[in-house]
TrEMBL record:
Keyword RNA-binding: no
Gene: pikC_1
Organism: Capillimicrobium parvum
E.C. number(s) listed in UniProt: 1.14.15.33
Family affiliation: Belongs to the cytochrome P450 family.
Phylogenetic placement of the source organism: Bacteria, Bacillati, Actinomycetota, Thermoleophilia, Solirubrobacterales
A molecular function GO annotation: monooxygenase activity
Keyword flag S-adenosyl-L-methionine: no
Top-level EC class as recorded in UniProt: oxidoreductase
Protein name: Cytochrome P450 monooxygenase PikC
Domain of life: Bacteria
Amino acid sequence: MQRETRDAPVMDVNYFTEEWNADPYPGLEAIRAAGPIVFNPRTNDWMVPGYQLGARVQANARRYKAVEELGQLFGGITMEFVDTPLHHELRGVWAKDFQRETLQRQRAMIDEIVATRVGPFVERVRDGETVEAIANMTRGIPVLVIARMLGVSGDDVQRFSDWSDRMGGIVAGMVDESPAGAEMLQRGLDATAELNAFIAEQIAARRARPTGDLISAMTHSDVARRVSEQDLVASNTQLVFAGNETTAKLMASTLVALARHPDQRHAIVADRSLVPQAIEEVHRWETVAQVGYRDVHNGDAEIDGIVVPDGSRVCILLGACNRDAARWEDPSRFDIFREPQSHLGFGFGMHSCLGLNLARLELEVWLNQILDAIPECELAEDVSYGTNFVLRAPLSVHIRNP
């Protein structure tokens, strides 16, 4: 018997304005109220605002595939934008390096790098200055760590930061059809080309003389012999970007959240066992990667009686999924004491973030050092989030002693 289907709810949503990005959550709740899947004619995709369906779409690669054209923005195939079996082959090259147990051997290196960035920052704050935290502290930490793991000279770290900052606008620029979006996209593509050229030189050097770093591991892997040179370069380029961009933004969001909730910051200062769950709560409450994309394939998909045609793009609204009242009580409340539950901030299924254990370790080390040094701090200025909804985070965070 043929099942009855119904028309999809439609909402014209423009994510890429300062007004929306300053506080997207009322708008995301309006999308949720419209239905479990809502068509957005502005971006020509199907929005999913609920945790259960968002996780299901991300986990079901047979019906919802990775968006390979996004991977081509890195200049070739990368693990984030291709499905199994190639996804698992590429991911497998570095998987052990990002396991929790393996990363503990990197802890001393991470402690050292964090201290070099936190020390000068907190000294200025203690001296009574108002100091911008992103440029003067958080931005450099994850990029220095991933550069060390890649075997890249410290002299190149500033270029890594610049490339990553510009590349962070690529996906948003693709979706945002305004002149500002086009400019963001072009800046990102230019940065990718520059980073690809740099990575190609690094790969050539490691072919001639293998080392023990991540670039060398991929260069001399079995899968490297079966993919193109462009794909090999793109995989390393994506690791540079993914290995620092989200973590740096999450550090900035953590500063803002704890400055605005001093009672919870005081609780963490008193009990450092709360640090891991505080980090997870920030990531749930202020999700950095607000969207994830999948393409329907292997025929039309039917979701809650709505037919989504084969080839359609599904936009999983990860920030909305992470504030779903069906999963979290009072989800718009920031609460580090809530019962821990998995969120979608690091993705779900085969495409969950390879570096999630590294990100958590960096954040744990950094937050402990900050709370040791300046347990009392406050925001000196209002926080702006710009227009990049795809990777949403404060543009600047000015900190001072109260």
